[in-house]
Amino acid sequence: MPVHICKACGTSYPDTPAPPARCAICDDERQYVPATGQAWTTPDALAAAHRNAWQRHAPDLFSLQTVPAFAINQRAFLLRTDAGNVLWDCIANLDPATIDLVRALGGLAGVAISHPHYYTTMQDWAEAFACPIHLHEADRQWIMRPHPAIRLWSGDTLELGAGVTLIRAGGHFPGGTVLHWARGEGVLLPGDIVQITPGAHRASFLWSYPNMMPLPAAEVRRVAATLAPWRYERIHGAFAGQDVLRDGPGIVARSAARIVELLNGPPL
Question: Fold for domain 4-263?
Fold first, then answer.
């Protein structure tokens, strides 16, 4: 029986004779069910119609993204570290070429994911590379395919080694996580927890991005304050083109301050 993958969000569900009637992730107000209705695919069908494109952003930092675009169309990142490679966030398409390329780069020591919209086929990645998956326990209810490789962590930070730290920032989801890499001047990989805007000079913090629903001003302020002590210069967001190459902390702080000002009312 095949694993079923939601075409709208990329979440995978247990292997059953027929796909689920609904996708719990899409039914939540932070995502959406397309106007055309819920639709499903399988790993084999996905790999037959798509491939993964790679980009090198810096020494030992790569992103991979499925083409043509699939589901939410986020990119995943592979960090090569002295403690082993880390896959940050996840994409649904795990085709043979991707497996060969990741193995050639040294395999994976672990997978870490920012929030449930990017859980996708994390279980298959963990099996392919015999590695654990690190998820914050606050979002455990959104795990649609339980798997022994999943390691739920608690608290505010989790050290993965070699300067890689997971930071619970909350916001978009209670367990919303960003990754900090203390390589060079520092790198922040925020997934959707901090969304970089198209001009790459502002950031956004929302409860729901597709439905354009805001977070409370106090929560925006808290997320920004959580990130303020961390040293970094670059930010690489969830989508292609969301790359801040300098003044990352300034962009986050100024954007949060302006959003709080607008949420609190006049003057504009």
Answer: Metallo-beta-lactamase; Chain A (3.60.15)
